[in-house]
């Protein structure tokens, strides 16, 4: 694997291999010494043009646990804020000898441009680009589902027949897009639930079913329900009447939580707006995997960096 830019590009066998390697990495997390020498001598640059705490720290932890040297590059206060282009930044990183670049950018397609432009020879991981994709988030979500559903026997397994309902701001969510393609590749049955104003104009090519009524979706007894954050920072118009109205109609409140089967998995990619898309009781319930998703993110990102930077060199 040369780059990780989109889940749409992943074959089923590639996705399962990455999840299986993440299982190996998760076992390392349980040791007293959590480091592996796998990427010793490699340099990984976290190139973040958008604010992020969770994703940046997760990638930094993943690279350091594989013994890579890590350089954190924030656009704020750098030459980028003075007008430096992506090309100039890339060529600077190339001159520094970067082996891997983890990039988050507000422009959809920026990681693809970086990977295919010839400006840089490093492997590129998309850590979120605009409203396009966020592949490692989808992979950690699938990893979390697989572990909850199959436990210790999850290695080699996919998600065939698993009913996944994704609820909320689909329109602005790169997490939703990456999950749709990956979950379909792994055999899951995906339903999107949202007000019509928060769905893309055309989803005819997406391997999903659409539903506008959250209560009807809950009555369908999903195996997994994933609540998405309302991304007010990407909204320049009123997409729903009020936050209170949204929470009443499309939020996972205590009453809806009680109607879910006891083994339904409740997910949220974070950060959460408690009381808006998800109640505190739902976020903190035994069915919730919110904390597991954060922990699993490090294992999945270790697997991605391993495949990009060490996979060709053997085990």
Give a nutshell description of this structure.
With 315 residues, this protein is α/β, with parallel strands linked by helices.
- Look at the structure and give the mean pLDDT: 92
SS elements, strand count: 9
The percent of residues in helical segments reads 25-40%
What is the number of independent domains? 2
- Envelope shape: globular
- Trace the largest sheet across and list its strands: 7-6-5-8-9
Which H/E pattern describes the elements?
A: HEHEHEHEHEHEEHEHHEHH
Description:
The chain has eleven helices and nine strands. With 315 residues, the protein is of the alpha/beta class. The radius of gyration is 19 Å and the shape is globular. The strands form two sheets. A five-stranded parallel β-sheet has the order 7-6-5-8-9. Strands 2-1-3-4 form a four-stranded parallel β-sheet, with helices on both faces. The chain has two domains: 7-133 and 294-313, Aspartate/ornithine carbamoyltransferase (Rossmann fold, 3-Layer(aba) Sandwich); 135-289, Aspartate/ornithine carbamoyltransferase (Rossmann fold). The mean pLDDT is 92. Helix 1 (12-29) crosses helix 11 (290-309) and helix 5 (135-150) crosses helix 6 (174-185).
């Amino acid at each position: 694997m040369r780059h990780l830019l989109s889940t749409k590009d992943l074959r089923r066998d590639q996705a399962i291999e990455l999840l299986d390697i993440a299982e190996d990495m998760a076992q390392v997390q349980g040791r007293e010494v959590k480091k592996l020498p796998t990427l010793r001598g490699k340099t990984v640059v976290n190139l973040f043009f958008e604010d992020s705490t969770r994703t940046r720290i997760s990638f930094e932890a993943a690279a350091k646990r594989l013994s890579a040297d890590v350089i954190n590059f924030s656009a704020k206060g750098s030459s980028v804020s003075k007008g430096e282009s992506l090309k100039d930044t890339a060529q600077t990183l190339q001159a520094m000898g970067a082996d891997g670049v983890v990039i988050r950018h507000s422009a959809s397609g920026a990681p693809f441009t970086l990977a295919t432009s010839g400006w840089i020879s490093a492997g590129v991981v998309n850590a979120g680009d605009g409203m396009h994709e966020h592949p490692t988030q989808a992979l950690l979500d699938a990893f979390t589902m697989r572990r909850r559903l199959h436990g210790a026997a999850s290695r080699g397994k996919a998600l065939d027949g698993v009913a996944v309902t994704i609820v909320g701001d689909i329109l602005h969510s790169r997490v939703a897009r990456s999950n749709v393609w990956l979950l379909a590749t792994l055999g899951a049955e995906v339903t999107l639930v949202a007000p019509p104003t928060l769905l893309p104009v055309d989803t005819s090519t997406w391997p999903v079913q659409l539903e506008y009524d959250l209560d009807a979706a809950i009555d369908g007894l999903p195996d997994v329900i994933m609540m998405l954050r309302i991304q007010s920072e990407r909204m320049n118009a009123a997409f729903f009447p009020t936050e209170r109205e949204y929470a009443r109609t499309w939020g996972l409140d205590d009453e809806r939580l009680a109607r879910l089967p006891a083994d339904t998995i409740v997910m949220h990619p974070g950060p959460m707006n408690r009381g808006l898309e998800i109640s505190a009781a739902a976020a903190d319930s035994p069915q919730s995997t919110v904390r597991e998703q954060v922990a699993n993110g490090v294992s999945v990102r270790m697997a991605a960096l391993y495949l990009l930077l060490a996979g060709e060199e053997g085990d």
